[in-house]
Amino acid sequence: MNIEIYTDASYDPKTKIAIYGELIIDNQNLNQPIYNFSSTIIENTTNTEAEIYGVLNILDKFDPQNYLTIYTDCQMIINLVSCDERKKNKPIYDKFYNLYDKCGDRCKFIKVVGHKNKDLRNNIEENFSKLDKYVRKQLRLHLRNLQSI
To answer: What predicted TM-score, i.e. pTM, was given to this entire model?
Structure first.
């Protein structure tokens, strides 16, 4: 089976809290695709790490019998998979490469232009925009809840 997953993160630099999310689109019924959103909160992180954690979450659940296409707007993730020299000195990179290597050629990453004018978006960019809005909304809600405590 071919699975398409979108991943994105939203980050608040003041609190160093981020949230990453994923959108899995079930296109089995092409007349009415099913959109499955999910998100996870991370504290004491950076935006780039949150983006990578989002991909780690996907790769960790990956069934090697499937083919996986991951859409991201994070250039660092694209660099991690396309660079001949692997990044070192951070456990997050080791975990990324471990999981990515298990996927082999069954996993590919596609860079999406984020925050594009609605009139200029293609279908992939429109799906990514839905996730981007969802993740930003979840972060705002979480920060609002923290302020009310």
So the answer is: 0.88
